[in-house]
Design goal:
about 850 residues, Rossmann fold, Serine Threonine Protein Phosphatase 5, Tetratricopeptide repeat, 5-stranded parallel sheet, 3-stranded antiparallel sheet, 10 strands, about 5% strand
């Protein structure tokens, strides 16, 4: 009695405690001591944000300045302008109304927005935030909507891409990566809160703020404001000589002013006049470059040119003072502006050190890094071992490099570095892949010039496609892999090893999307090329054999698939050994096809061997091990060993939710697997809940017409059918049958199974309508009689369905990766 009472009281007490929490601010920046007051803008913000549920936005490029931000043991230079006004307003709100929560949310990307909301959930100590099944964004949104939590104000900083918040499904796509819930849904218009948005994009700001009437353009400073800023940044008033002329030449742009002051401060005897004199010396030298590229800056032409000239003078001065710092700047200019890992820059520095002394290289790197920071060209971030660079600085750096023909050389250095550092999509490398992925995305459309350059590029792009595929983003992976194959075919030829590897990866991605005919053609091409170039017993050739077998069994061509799988396994055992991960993958593949041929005893033995080996070699929580768990559960279920199958399926589901996430295609497959065995135990309620969750997830992640989604529809129809809920089941059966015919063809085992079971249900429903009754045992005999072996198989997913996502994922992990690993000649770390 007491425990139950406590269970009911504790959530209430937590909620009361949350409501009584002392309001706080998450603004990560202190007020800027050099802040130049813009009273008209701050007054406008106050007026706009005064009403309930108000939204306002600051837009424009004018004033791309830098604010000094102090963290423990580190000073961060963070790029701000509109954001600087938002910082000041945030502190004004806290000073005027201490009872108001003030939240700062970085919104330049979806990932940063999600990270900010997770941080808010932690700061607010929201119950359930650590539950992997809980939507943390929704959790925070619900808290914001609850007026009993008190007043709050949010700054949504750097919303430059409207698609980040208002994404919609692209026309003609069954599913796109943007088809998930738009982030704008998580921005409530609550009576107790207001949102201030900063953006360079007027359209993005207007759409989020509720129209152009709610946006304010932040224009460049006037002369007096610019002079005030310049004086604040100078270390000595004696350096002001010529300031008015200099500021006019810089068009009063805060970033240019700040950088000019930083440069002057570093030169003991320099004044503004000296800087202006040096500035004018570069006019003719830089004129053609500035005229050619000014339009890309999306600014007034004169303003853009002024900024570019200011930076180029700094670049040249750095090159004169410290060549290695200029080299570092050149390399950084090809990274994504945000989240640049300092560790990869440090590794590059070590690789080019002539002495090979790591301590010496690290010391030199620190000096280079500090030099670039002193000129405000890069900024360290609060995140450990990360830095960032303003996009305009990057642009101007590349323009500067082009002016003396060095841009291509540094781009190739960047590609070479990424080719060495970007790992394959193997599970152990996912964290590193995720960190580096934003920095290689710009390479997908790179124009290729040399074979050597192309091979490094192909390595990066192929690895990126593999990683994106393993994370379940199949459409994006297809786009990347297609570009890789097109380029390698054009430059390297049809039979080059990287062309074959690109074909293999694309085939794998197509298979994941249920495009089996295309995948088969590419796999046969890859196998033929490997046999010709490498020989029939080479591990890469055996990998191609296994890949082809995979897609054949997805098409229901079990006899040919079995022959190929036996060939692959025999070869892998001979070439790699019986405990090699690729050999164990081949064991699983053969067991898989044997299961569909009702060779259960042999399949079970192979599955147990694969699981035992994976646990020993990879560990019990590795995704490949979890797939082996799932495969064994399926073959046990086929033999009626439901209790053991249930335990294994629960283990696989729990592990996949933890390692892959609750919406990953393999996790959704585990949901269906568990539902399947629960149904055969008569646990219909739980089975139905799991099936509906799996169907919803697959529709969202894979699209409504994907074979795996159709299989979930089919399985749910069969479950309802067994419960005599004929009306509900009928529509689902019809959808599944029509979809299978369209996607797989009328003669595919899944299509035949669906049609047979639908027909059986219609007969049962008609008998009941006429008042005829049959025993349950008779019904089951009718079902087995009317249902082919293939239809029985298709009612047990995963590794229960012929079109299983998880099955495809497993085989790719064990087969495609082997090809990548050998082609690349290294294992990602």
């Amino acid at each position: 009695m007491v425990p139950r009472l406590l269970d009911s009281i504790i959530p209430i007490l937590r909620k009361i405690s949350a409501r009584q929490r002392e309001p706080f601010s998450t603004v990560p920046f202190a007020p800027d001591p050099d802040f130049i007051d813009r009273p008209e803008i701050l007054a406008w913000i106050r007026a706009k944000c005064a009403g309930p549920g108000a939204r306002a936005a600051l837009v424009g490029l004018g004033g791309v300045g830098y604010v000094n931000v102090h963290f423990p043991n580190i000073t961060v230079l963070t790029k701000k302008s509109k954001s600087q006004l938002a910082i000041q307003y945030s502190h004004n709100v806290r000073d005027a109304t201490p009872q108001t929560f003030v939240f700062w949310v970085h919104a330049s990307t979806k990932a940063r927005f999600e990270e900010a909301y997770r941080d808010l959930a932690d700061r607010l100590e929201l119950p359930g935030r650590h539950d992997p099944k809980v939507d943390v964004l929704r959790l925070v949104s619900n808290w914001l909507c609850d007026e009993t939590n008190g007043r709050w104000m949010m700054v949504l900083d750097n919303v430059d891409d409207v698609e980040t918040f208002l994404s919609r499904r692209r026309e003609g796509d069954e599913r796109s990566e943007s088809s998930s819930t738009p982030l704008a849904v998580y921005l409530p218009q609550s009576r107790n809160g207001s949102i201030l948005i900063t953006s360079r994009n007027k359209d993005a700001a207007a759409r989020l703020a509720g129209g152009h009437k709610n946006i304010k353009e932040v224009r460049a400073m006037d002369e007096s404001q610019a002079l005030h800023l310049f004086r604040n940044k100078l270390q000595s008033a004696s350096k002001e000589e010529g300031a008015a002329d200099l500021l006019r030449a810089l068009d009063y742009i805060p970033l240019a002013i700040t950088q000019a002051a930083a440069y002057i401060n570093r030169r003991t005897r320099w004044t503004a006049y000296n800087y202006l004199d040096e500035f004018h010396k570069n006019d003719k030298k830089k004129e053609s470059i500035l005229n050619r590229d000014a339009g890309d800056l999306r600014r007034d032409a004169s303003a853009s040119n002024s900024v570019v000239m200011t930076w180029q003078m700094s670049f040249e001065r750095i090159r004169e003072e410290r060549r290695s710092a200029a080299d570092l700047l050149s390399l950084i200019s090809f990274f994504n502006p945000q989240g640049i890992p300092a560790w990869i820059l440090r590794r590059h520095s070590r690789s080019v050190t002539e002495t090979g002394d790591e301590d010496e290289a690290d010391s030199a790197f620190d000096e280079d890094f500090d030099t670039l920071q002193a000129y405000s060209l890069i900024a360290a971030t609060a995140e450990t071992d990360m830095c960032e660079m303003h996009p305009l600085v990057q642009f101007c750096t590349q323009v500067w490099l082009s002016s003396f023909g060095d841009a291509e050389r540094w781009k190739q250095k960047f590609i070479g570095l990424m080719a060495r550092e970007f790992p394959t999509g193997q599970f152990e490398t996912w964290a590193k892949c995720q960190q580096l992925l934003p920095h290689v995305e710009s390479l997908y459309d790179t124009e290729l010039t040399t074979d050597e350059f192309l091979k490094e590029w192909a390595q990066i792009v192929t690895n990126a496609a593999w990683y994106v595929q393993m994370k379940g983003s199949y459409m994006i992976a297809q786009e990347i892999a297609t570009k890789a194959l097109t380029a390698t075919e054009r430059v390297l030829g049809q039979d080059d090893e990287w062309t074959l590897t690109s074909a293999t990866v694309l085939a794998s991605v197509l298979q994941c999307q249920g495009k089996y005919d295309e995948a088969e053609k590419l796999n046969r091409r890859a196998l033929e090329g490997s046999e010709k170039e490498l020989g029939i017993q080479h591990p890469d050739t055996l990998t191609s054999v296994s890949n082809l077998a995979m897609v054949l069994q997805d098409q229901g061509k079990y006899d040919e698939a079995e022959k190929l799988n036996r060939r692959a396994l025999e070869g892998m055992e001979k070439e790699l050994g019986i405990q090699h991960p690729d050999t164990l993958a081949s064991v699983n593949n053969l067991a898989f096809v044997l299961k569909y041929q009702e060779k259960y005893d042999e399949a079970e033995k192979l599955n147990r061997r694969a699981l035992e080996g994976a646990e020993k070699v990879l560990g019990i929580q590795h995704p490949e091990t979890l797939t082996s768990v799932s495969n064994l559960a399926t073959v046990l279920q086929y033999q009626g060993k439901y209790d053991e199958a249930e335990k294994l399926n629960r283990r696989a589901l729990e592990g996949r939710e933890k390692e892959l996430g609750i919406q990953h295609p393999e996790t959704l497959t585990s949901l269906t697997n568990l539902a399947s065995v629960l149904q055969y135990q008569g646990k219909y309620d739980e089975a139905e809940k799991l099936n509906r969750r799996a169907l919803e997830g697959r529709e969202k992640e894979l699209g409504k017409g994907h074979p795996d989604t159709l299989n979930s529809v089919y399985w749910l129809a069969y479950l309802l059918h067994k419960q005599k809920r004929y009306a509900e089941a009928s529509g689902l059966y019809q959808r599944a049958c029509d979809g299978f015919k369209q996607k797989l063809g009328s003669h595919h085992p899944d299509t035949i199974a669906c049609v047979n079971n639908y027909s059986t249900m219609q007969e049962e429903a008609e008998r009941e309508r006429r008042g005829q009754s049959r025993t349950s045992a008779y019904d089951d005999r009718v079902m087995l009689k009317k249902t082919s072996i293939h239809s029985f198989s298709s009612l047990h997913e995963d590794e229960t369905t012929p079109a299983s996502t998880s099955r495809s994922q497993k085989n790719k992990q064990g087969s495609i990766y082997a090809r990548l690993k050998r082609r690349i000649g290294r294992k990602g770390t």
